[in-house]
């Protein structure tokens, strides 16, 4: 993984949620795969990783690819309805899991007295649901959801709003993100950007990141000056078909 110079001094850390603290990205990947299979088309994992992961505006392009591959004339609205059925199947506690190292990183930063925030493009109901489910809500002084901004990532508004609510200049914040859409938003806000790609996006370049780390254990080492644990738990999920192995 690419690393730049050590992280400069900072006053706060702002986290993305989906794909960074919780693995809700793979369930979306599985739902999109199921939609393609339902329509009799071969899924395109790399297209999904490049255009959809972390970018809600990417679904129309994915639907266009589906229509081309399946020879169907279903509208975007019809395909969204079908996709929602698969989301309901996969966006469950059995599939959405906490990212390995998340608690260790959050607890390490909190022990150091670092103010923490969430800046997510997802709706507030979704954000509150999963922060509550995993017992994370009380770890964050500020939570900014997609409902709190008029422009979502890659626009920097969520990061700028989180920094303002923390009372910290964005340039004094570290942003922790998994997707290229998210790192672009954080970079535009002026944050120092730490990318933690998932197995679904690890093969992609992350040009907006100052640091690219393997997982949240390595992020903890980077941000708290602590060595990663000697033995890490296995990844929550196995290899992703159609993408390079992590």
Tell me the fraction of residues in β-strands, as a range.
5-15%
Radius of gyration: 18 Å
Mean pLDDT, to the nearest integer, reads: 90
Task: Report the order of strands and helices.
Answer: EEHHHHEHEHEHEHEEH
Tell me what the structure shows.
This protein has 246 residues and is an alpha/beta fold. It has 2 domains: 12-23 and 96-224, Rossmann fold (3-Layer(aba) Sandwich); 25-90. 39% of the residues lie in helices and 11% in strands. The chain has 9 helices and 8 strands. The chain has helices at residues 25-38, 45-51, 59-70, 76-90, 102-111, 124-133, 157-166, 180-189, 216-224; strands at 12-15, 22-23, 97-98, 116-119, 142-144, 173-177, 192-195, 211-212. The strands form 2 sheets. Strands 5-4-1-6-7-8 form a 6-stranded parallel β-sheet. Strands 2-3 form a two-stranded antiparallel ribbon. Strand 6, helix 8 and strand 7 form a beta-alpha-beta unit. Helix 1 (25-38) crosses helix 4 and helix 5 (102-111) packs parallel to helix 9. The longest helix has 15 residues, at 76-90. The radius of gyration is 18 Å and the shape is elongated. The chain starts with 11 loop residues before the first strand and ends in a 22-residue tail after the last helix. This is Hydrolase. GO terms for molecular function: sugar-phosphatase activity. It comes from Streptomyces phaeofaciens. InterPro entries: HAD-like_sf (IPR036412), HAD-like_SPP (IPR051806), HAD-SF_hydro_IA (IPR006439), HAD_2 (IPR041492), HAD_sf (IPR023214), PGP-like_dom2 (IPR023198). Pfam families: HAD_2.
